[in-house]
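Reply to dn_fold:

You asked what the input looked like. This is it:
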Amino acid sequence: MSDEMMNTKGVARYLDIHEKQVYALIKTGRIPATRVTGKWIFPKRMIDAWIEANAKSGLEQAKQKGGRIAGALLASGSNDPVLDILQTCLRKAHPEFFIFSANTGSSDGLDALDKGYTDIAWSHLFHPESGEYNIPYIEERLPHVKAVVVNLFFRDLGFLTAPGNPVNIRGVEDLAKEGVRFVNRQAGSGTRLLLDHHLGRTGISPEHISGYEQEVFTHLEVGLAILSGGADTGIATVAVANLLGLAFSPITRERFDMICDQSVFFQKGVQALVETLTSETFRKRVENLGNYDFSAAGRILYVKP
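and this is what came back:
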């Protein structure tokens, strides 16, 4: 190929980014490119002009807004109160790093990671056939990411009810009882997928559960719905039960992981996050939240070949 023309691999090397990020730029129309015989081509002179234009734009934004945030990482996926505390501890120990996190659910977090929209995915996707978490989904959901899976913690997940468990919820079978109002997590979340697995195993139709279509996006919202009287039960972590003074009936202990591209894992921000995860300061902050297990925290569980 002429030195004046680059393909996606060439422009990725030229810009010192990953090829998947190039495709994300193409998809959003943020980089000059043309398709020739089914392949994306980038004229080098136009890329140089684009870089110069973006540099000027960035300079103007810096003048107007005092500059952009350096050392920032984007995260999306599942939700847990421990993540908020972890990020607070990270900012105190390493004020130069930021992690902006969106509560999208585990499935959407992995999809965003594969599309290059986020740097990190938080996930606790249970794989019924293997009994494993997250790793069996890597090939299917992250074909464009050279993924590394790092454990953050294990946590207890279960049914939350008002103090004393007045509706007597002990298992998924009880959700179909007359008069029981359920609050659900959104489709694609790890909690929702786990619930649907148990419903399928016990032969209970979602149509028989009052409130199955009532969806919220976080564990805390589940707890608040019960605390406010808007629902009788929902599935969330024991930490939320303890924080809000609700009753807790365990379903399972699940593994909660961080997933990112291998190159992102070696960035200073992620390494600082792992360092914070294993710090005494963080552990003291979370020791009274509930039955969290940090024995494997920071351990690399899987590296995609």
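Residues 44-65 form the longest helix (22 residues).
Hope that clears it up.
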